[in-house]
Design goal:
The chain has 529 residues and is mainly β. It has five helices and 35 strands.
Length: 529
């Protein structure tokens, strides 16, 4: 009994497998195309008929209440001259009820893509029409030549009464396995490749293509169509070796190898093996120092959002610059860039984020702020390779990239490329978490530069055209720093206020006259007394 059940189960599984294969074969592209040796017309046994071409004139189909055709079947058939050299034809098979007045059937096909119309009339012998009156007969014609993937309108009309039936048919394309291996324009060949990343070369070997024809090979970037990279080779049919090398610049995800035979309307085969090379997309950032423009162009179709950010000690911590985020269509452009080594570009897709810092290697910052120790005091020195405007503020740093401004006071300094600016710092006002923060304000996108650990009262000296002016920030920074210190230690006392006034009086011993440059008109009067 167990053996019998086992046999029954095995039989059921085999039947299910066969049914599944039969149902899925059209989806997999293995719908079989019937082959014919000769094309022509054919009628039911006992019904003599002959065919001739009809005038190639379009006639508007007429509508009748009765449908003389019980069924109409349309299929694709294949006629081959030799192996892998076949043509496709339309096979039309109609079943109708014959009456003594019916003289024949006109069968027409109209190709929608080319508006080509083919018509054929199949006529019956009158004596046999009378003899077979009332019986069902079959009429077949399979000589309408068609092309792959064409949309066809098929019309059958009885003669002479003109009863018409119209159907639409879609010819299979090169995805069909039978067509792909036997119709010349579908035989695109087989491609095997290898990559030499050191030499940046792709080696391609071609096989299973039409040996009687030349063969084209190229590299292309696949967007809506495949756009050539310029790497192209023509393999001559007489060449014994069907292997070539193609140079590339980057193995981006949309880089494809494309090949096709040298026959009109030939199908093309594309091999796109680098789809996982997403990292390659984020290179190619260019910068123009004259116009201060940073440009990045999209090499492949991908949804990506680009923003500017700046790093501190760790590149993975990149703080976004406000109002710098853009969605890329073809390319992005940032105008007004402070080309600092810590200014970076962040690329964000659905699969993650990538950071690239185009100025990290080989670029020097346009301006620089550093601390210099002199015999008497500390100095912050600001130098620049071009004329810039820098904003200086005091801030309280709470994290690597977070420094909260202390008060609303801001000093704008014009720095000439030939005249450095110095900021004198007194040692008694230094605090570990207080920083002097500088940022260019004459460009749209600039990162903050911070000098910490030595924050004190600020005296800025600047020489221009032989003249010298001293910008002494005493009262404002002194009071502000004292308040910050008091807040940090939690002891706000009258003694500390007196100490602040004492510092103010000590600063007044500087006999230098305070003069604000034209560019610093927006500085509050509190900065200069």
């Amino acid at each position: 009994m167990a053996v019998f059940l086992s046999i029954q189960i095995k039989l059921v599984l085999e039947i299910l497998a066969v049914v599944t294969i039969c149902m899925m074969s059209p989806v997999w592209g293995w719908e079989r195309i019937d082959r014919i040796k000769e094309c022509g017309h054919q009628c039911s046994p006992g019904l003599y008929c002959k065919s001739k071409a009809s005038l190639d004139v379009f006639r508007r189909p007429q509508s009748f209440e009765s449908q003389p055709f019980q069924s109409v079947n349309i299929s694709t058939v294949m006629k081959c001259k030799k192996e892998r050299d076949c043509l496709l034809y339309l096979n039309v098979n109609g079943t109708l009820q014959l009456d003594e007045n019916m003289q024949g059937v006109e069968i027409c096909s109209l190709t929608l893509s080319t508006l080509r119309r083919q018509c054929r009339t199949v006529r019956f012998k009158k004596t046999e029409s009378m003899k077979l009156h009332g019986q069902q007969v079959h009429v077949q014609y399979n000589c309408f030549e068609v092309g792959i993937a064409q949309q066809i309108i098929v019309t059958l009309k009885t003669i002479p009464d003109g009863n018409t039936q119209t159907m639409e048919y879609h010819v299979q394309d090169c995805n069909n396995g039978d067509i792909r291996g036997n119709i010349p324009i579908c035989i695109a060949g087989k491609l095997d490749y290898s990559v030499d990343q050191k030499e940046k070369l792709v080696s391609v070997h071609v096989s299973e293509f039409l040996e009687d024809n030349d063969y084209h090979l190229r590299l292309c970037h696949k967007w809506h169509s495949c756009e050539s990279t310029g790497a192209y080779v023509l393999i001559k049919r007489e060449d014994p070796v069907k292997k070539v090398t193609l140079p590339y610049s980057k193995l981006v995800p949309c880089l494809c190898i494309e090949g096709w035979s040298s026959i009109p309307d030939s199908s093309r085969i594309q091999l796109c093996p680098f789809k996982k090379n997403t990292e390659e997309l984020w290179s190619g950032i260019t910068y123009n120092p004259i116009s201060q423009e940073l440009v990045w162009e999209l090499a492949c179709p991908i949804e990506v959002r680009v923003s500017l950010c700046w790093t501190t000690e760790h590149i993975h911590n990149c703080t976004d610059l406000p109002n710098s985020s853009q969605t890329v269509q073809n390319k992005i452009k940032y105008v007004g860039i402070d080309s600092h080594p810590r200014l970076c570009v962040k690329f964000t897709t659905k699969s993650g984020s990538w950071i690239r810092c185009p100025f990290a290697n080989g670029y020097f910052p346009v301006w620089n702020m550093k601390v210099v120790l002199t015999p008497d005091q500390y100095q912050v020195v600001i130098t620049s390779a071009m004329d810039v405007v820098v904003s200086l503020t005091l801030c309280n740093r709470t994290a690597h990239s977070i420094c909260h401004p202390l008060g609303k006071n801001r000093v704008l300094i014009h720095v000439d490329k030939s005249n450095p600016v110095t900021a004198n710092l007194t040692r008694g006002m230094c605090q570990s978490n207080i920083c002097i923060q500088g940022r260019r304000v004459d460009v749209k996108y600039a990162i903050p530069v911070q000098t910490c650990e030595l924050q004190c009262s600020l005296i800025v000296s600047h020489s221009n055209d032989g003249g010298t002016f001293v910008w002494m920030v005493t009262l404002s920074f002194a009071i502000l720093t004292v308040v910050v210190v008091a807040a940090l230690v939690g002891h706000v006392t009258l003694t500390e206020k007196k100490y602040g006034f004492k510092r103010q009086s000590e600063s007044s011993t500087f006999k230098t006259k305070c003069r604000l440059p034209t560019s610093a008109k927006s500085v509050p009067s509190l900065l200069c007394r």
